[in-house]
Amino acid sequence: MPLDDRQVFDTPIAGYGEKELGRHSYTKGAWSLYVLYRLVGEKSFALIIRNMLKEFTERGINFSEFQKLSERATKRNLDKFFKEWVYGTESSQLLVDKIPIADIMRRYGP
User: Fold this and answer.
1) What DSSP string describes 36-104?
2) Into how many domains does the chain fold?
């Protein structure tokens, strides 16, 4: 695995900016949003995005604020998802191992 790939594998998305890995957010970031979409459903995901656009028009949103907004919109605890997909690197292994989305969903309960 090339150094850049290893660094991406070992770096949480929340750390991409600090390590100048932002270009990788277009792949792993997109996967993270897709997993969140599948986890909360279409209506809740749309509500998350609508609320984000309404509440954060004047400034950007950070990951902690996005988690709180997502949990408020869905009325769910999404801590495990955010720990693995934003703040941790467990998601890297799930993607490398090509774990099916149905199996990924089971990790986060109903």
Assistant:
1) HHHHH-HHHHHHHHHHHHHHTSSS---HHHHHHHHHHHHTS--HHHHHHHTSSSHHHHHHHTT--HHHH
2) 1
